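Quick one: structure tokens for this chain, please?
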Amino acid sequence: MKENPYQTPDSRLDIEQTNQEHTLAPLSARFIAALLDGIVSIIILLPFIYIGYLFETETPFWKDFPLFENALFLSIFMIFYMIGTHVLFHGVLLAKYGQTIGKRIVGIQIVDYDSAKILPLLDVIGKRYSPQVLVNYVPLVGSFLSLIDILFIFGRERRCVHDLIANTKVIEYLKPRVNTENESRLI
């Protein structure tokens, strides 16, 4: 049978299938991204390093703030400071692209495991980063648990424990698709 030149073209829009056709981020890219994010974290911590220096030199300025002499208060303040600055530095990228600064530079992103969609910022912070940060503060076993978290990356799915908790995976960056003029006429 001869093909009809006036027939509308067949188009299959397999959105679910398209979301599944992605490449997991290589271990080297995840490592470099984590290293770059670590450098950003060190820069964020510089004010605390300076404050620690001021405490050691017993600068009279800090004696006016009795709360800062309490180690528990300082620890809690530091946790909130780190979370706040992390959201401030990485929040827009995480919300819009599923990336931190390091992941953006390397070209990988965090997505939902099932749908490969970018997660809302509160889900990323609450489910993916918060458990990871809180485990670090568990006395004696926190460092050991963090190591186990990281070692899970060598599994078949390349997912750390924090990825399993948040139901996420890290993939190569999927650039947003822009319709060309021809495609917009077909849609």
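Residues 23-176 form one domain.
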